[in-house]
Structure formats: structure tokens, C-alpha cells
Design brief:
The chain has 348 residues and is α/β, with parallel strands linked by helices. It is 43% helix and 16% strand. It is elongated. The protein starts with a strand and ends with a helix.
């Protein structure tokens, strides 16, 4: 298993790894000691070995030169690990750690299966697309980046509880979930606070995940706002928060939009402008094109814009329901199981 750096790369790989282990297979990871894999993979008792490599995409010249200097050694290290482990196939969810491992796998003539959840593939998968044996994608339009006949729309592994979220019926309270991810979003936090005095509708209820850094200041001021709702540094049970929400306001990383799809929740998506290859923007555009979300650029998201967007979505007849249906059209149940089954095809 190759894929690391962020939780968005590691968590899907772990879902597939758990499924493979349940089927009786041995799973090994290769990663870096500074990525999220260093914490998450050992916690689930999977074997992991370490290489040293940095990023190449959207980094400064100094970092790029350092990575290029390290690349031959990291590919050689990964190749030696593959010689020792003797895997039937190599599975990648992307990230900078995947590059040397996939190059080593191709050098050793091992089949490579990639899971590419974003509308536009990340740097590593895009550069090596023509060499992959199979590409598991989330958006049909992503297939154009890979050889014809080697793609399958599987979606991204999402916890079952998101698929169990019931359709939200209109009620006396309209609940809006605002979340910028586990670390929070400065843009969404500012917009939420600016919106507090602008809500003239007493039925509005806000559920806001701020991130730990901004929580104390925002929580104190929220209590004085007079609005209904809760404000939290981190929401432990996000599927339950989705079930309470009529509308979600969030970034558009693939983990988030996959959960929105599974839960069938309409959304206002505010892509992170610094995301590599603008993948959050492309994800949000795909959801907006399908009618599942409204896209608001980061620079345009203010309290007034938030209130305006919510008002439009809520007051136009049938819009919330049609957005929910469109979101569910992206949902794919059993992505980890399908990925495991495809990898089993390469067992000799």
C-alpha cells in the first residue's frame, strides 16, 4: 500500500487494507515518518516500512531540488522493500510517498492499481497514469486521464454510517452544518461569525466545527449572539451531525464530498484555493454541475454571501430535495470491497 502525507490519502488505503486482511491477505505499507501514515497505520497493526521523500508539486524550488536529489535513493529503497515483501500488486491512493513506490513497482514489473478520488488526478497518478493496470475513480470524467478500458467508477471508501443517514424532512428548524475539516477553516470561521447578526429568521440553527485553534474565541462570542446552535472544536460523530443538518457548508476535499454523497446532503462548497492541482475546485465544480451543491470561491465567501446562498437554496421550491438526490447519485457503496476484489485478481 502506497499513499500518505495527509489523512485523505491514508484513510482510504486503510479501509482497503482492512478488507484485504479480513479476506486473509497480508498487507504492507510503505510511507514516511512525518506523514499521517506514521500515526494511523501502526495504530491499526499493519506493517509499515519507511522511505525518505518530499513533495514535487506546488513546492518551492529548494524543496523540489531536495526531493529530486532524494528520488533515486528512495526508489532504490522501495525496490529493495518490494523484493523482500514480494507483493502480488501495489495499491496507491496518491500523495508524495506514492511516487517512489510506484516507480519501483513499475521497475519490478508489478501491477499497479490506483484509487484516484479527485476529478483531476493528483501529480503522481497523473504522471504515471498510462502505466497503471487499473484505476479506481469517483467521477466518470476522470477516466480520460487513464488508458481506455482500465478505469472503474468505485468511489472512495466511506464509513457505513454515512450511507445510513436518513433523508432530512423539512421541519420548524433549519439546521446548517459549517465545517472546515478537523483543523477548521479561517474563511468559513470568519464567514460564520459575520453571518450571526444577519440571520433574521428565528428558525435558523448553526452547527459549527471551528477547529481547536479558533474555538475559544468564537465560542465565547457565539454564546452572546443569541442564535440557536452549537459550536465545537471538533465533531466526533460527523455522521450524526450530517443527519441533523438540512444543509452543509464545507471545503471540497474528496473525503468530505464522498461523505456528502453517501449521506445525500445538499451543500455549499468553498474549495481550498491552495489545494494541489486545484483538486478541491474541480471536485466542487463536478458537484455543482450535477446540481448537488453550490460553489462559492474562497475569496467571495462572506457572512452576507453565506446568508444569501442559504436563503436562495431554502426558498426555491424543490431545490433542497433535488440537490440531495443529485448528491446521492455520486454515492458508491462497497468501494473498499471492490478495490480488494480487483487486487485479488493479481494473485498468482
Amino acid at each position: 500500500m502506497a499513499g500518505g502525507g495527509s489523512g485523505g490519502h491514508v484513510i482510504p488505503a486503510l479501509a482497503v487494507a482492512r478488507e484485504l486482511r479480513a479476506r486473509g491477505h497480508e498487507v504492507h505499507f510503505i510511507g514516511t515518518q512525518r506523514g499521517m501514515e506514521a500515526k494511523l497505520v501502526p495504530a491499526e497493526n499493519f506493517a509499515i516500512e519507511w522511505i525518505e521523500i518530499g513533495g514535487l508539486n506546488r513546492v518551492g524550488l529548494r524543496r523540489m531540488l531536495s526531493t529530486l536529489a532524494d528520488l533515486p535513493l528512495s526508489v532504490w529503497q522501495a525496490a529493495r522493500m518490494l523484493d523482500r515483501i514480494k507483493p502480488a500488486a501495489v495499491f496507491s491512493t496518491g500523495g508524495y510517498v506514492a511516487g517512489p513506490v510506484l516507480l519501483a513497482a513499475l521497475w519490478k514489473r508489478l501491477p499497479v492499481v490506483v484509487m484516484e478520488p479527485n476529478a483531476v488526478p493528483g501529480f503522481t497518478h497523473r504522471r504515471l497514469a498510462r502505466f497503471v493496470a487499473r484505476a479506481l475513480i469517483s467521477f466518470p470524467e476522470t477516466a480520460r486521464w487513464f488508458p481506455k478500458g482500465r478505469t472503474e467508477v468505485t468511489g472512495l471508501p466511506v464509513r457505513d454510517e454515512f450511507f445510513d443517514v436518513s433523508r432530512k424532512r423539512p421541519g420548524p428548524t433549519f439546521s446548517i452544518l459549517i465545517t472546515g475539516g478537523s483543523q477548521g477553516s479561517r474563511t468559513l470561521n470568519y464567514a460564520a461569525e459575520e453571518s450571526w447578526p444577519l440571520w433574521k429568521d428565528p428558525s435558523i440553527r448553526l452547527l459549527h466545527q471551528t477547529g481547536a485553534a479558533a474555538y475559544e474565541d468564537l465560542a465565547a462570542r457565539f454564546r452572546q449572539s443569541g442564535l440557536k446552535g452549537t459550536i465545537s472544536p471538533f465533531i466526533d460523530n460527523m455522521s450524526r451531525a450530517f443527519s441533523e443538518a438540512d444543509l452543509v457548508v464545507s471545503r471540497s476535499g474528496m473525503g468530505t464530498v464522498s461523505e456528502l454523497a453517501a449521506a445525500g446532503r445538499p451543500a455549499i462548497l468553498v474549495p481550498l484555493p491552495t489545494a494541489a492541482d486545484q483538486h478541491q475546485l474541480r471536485n466542487a465544480e463536478a458537484f455543482e454541475k450535477a446540481g448537488a451543491a453550490r460553489l462559492v470561491p474562497d475569496a467571495e465567501m462572506t457572512g452576507a454571501r453565506l446568508v444569501e446562498e442559504v436563503k436562495q437554496i431554502r426558498t426555491e421550491p424543490g431545490v433542497l430535495e433535488s440537490m440531495a438526490n443529485a448528491a446521492r447519485s455520486f454515492a458508491r457503496l462497497g468501494a473498499a470491497q471492490r478495490a480488494a476484489a480487483i487486487l485479488e485478481e493479481f494473485l498468482h
